[in-house]
Amino acid sequence: MNKIQKITIFIGLSISFSMNSQPIELPELGIQFEIPAGWSGGEEGDYIILGHNSIPGLMILTQNKARDAHTLKNQAEDTILEEGVFLEADGDFVIVSETRVEGNYKGTYQGQEVKAYAIGLINTQGTGMNILILTAPDAFSKAHIEEANKLARSVKFAAPKDSDNTLFWKERITGVQLKYMHTSGGSDYSGGYSGISDVVMINLCSNGQFTYYSNAHSSFDASGGFGSANARKDTGGNYEIYSQGKSTYLDLQFENGDVKSFELTVNSERHTLLNGSRYAIINVEGCE
Q1: What is the rounded CA–CA span in Å between residue 239 and residue 46?
Q2: Which end of the chain has the smaller Cβ count within 10 Å, N or C?
Q3: Separation in Å, CA 249 to CA 48, 65, 162, 172
Q4: Which H or E run includes 32?
Q5: Are 245 and 15 in contact (CB under 8 A)?
Q6: What is the mean pLDDT of the chain?
Q7: Domains annotated on the chain, with CATH
Q8: 34-42 contacts: CB < 8 A, separation 24 or more?
């Protein structure tokens, strides 16, 4: 049975494309491309989705981090299963060149049966691009393949270039520990007490790896009895700091495949916030 993959997506771009779009530049990813004539759209939820004024169906742009064609082929042949999306490879994908893989899918999209053609392009210096065009099986034609290839021919790759926001955050939080602490508690009319404490410590090492420790503790002492509970997590993986649009994010990619994403901001007092929660910056040894 094929493994299940999640589509890696362009998030938070806050941009839209018209039929007269100029080249779209995403320097943080090392990607530049042009939208073919007749297509328009932009970010819809978690995807870049384009529609055409006369060709039925959708063109969906996603990203990949593959570094070789065999890896990308294996990824492409995995079943794609997300909310409203089920696509499985319709035959083997083909390695066209060292930096290109293509093939077909069949399945459902938002409850509708679809046929899809996909192109995967590898950026050896940064983030690659996947182009997926889909429509109802009886509406699929050579035009869909031609339109996907038009966009593919316009793609230009380069080495990623950090924005000023990304550089700011890399300098601020690389090689340190981010620590979150929260406690709360109270008493009731009978003199009983309950309390909760949460601790999260994230060590962001200069080599791109992190360690993550969290501990949630709750306790109570009341007339009916007393007790306590702990929930603890101690793990690690690789992290990435990047910007999309005007926002900057910290992604923690855990060893088990899970990903936590935090938007990085500062408040009026210049405190560091992860998804709105304040984290202290602490210098630590052994994380260079």
Answers
A1: 20
A2: N
A3: 19, 17, 12, 13
A4: strand 31-33
A5: yes
A6: 84
A7: 4-157 (3.40.1000.10), 164-283 (no CATH)
A8: 34/151, 34/154, 35/151, 36/147, 36/150, 36/151, 36/154, 39/147, 40/16, 41/16, 41/17, 42/13, 42/15, 42/16, 42/17
CA-CA-CA-CA dihedral for 272, 277, 282, 286, to nearest 10:
-110
Say if residues 227 and 220 touch (Cβ distance below 8 Å): yes
pLDDT in tens, 133-185: 999 999 999 999 999 999 999 999 999 899 899 999 999 999 999 999 887 65
2 and 88 in contact (C-beta within 8 Å)? yes
The predicted-structure confidence for 196-211, as pLDDT tens digits, reads as follows 778 899 999 999 999 9
Instruction: Select, from the ranges 49-63, 72-86, 135-149, 173-187, the one with the highest average predicted confidence (pLDDT).
Output: 135-149
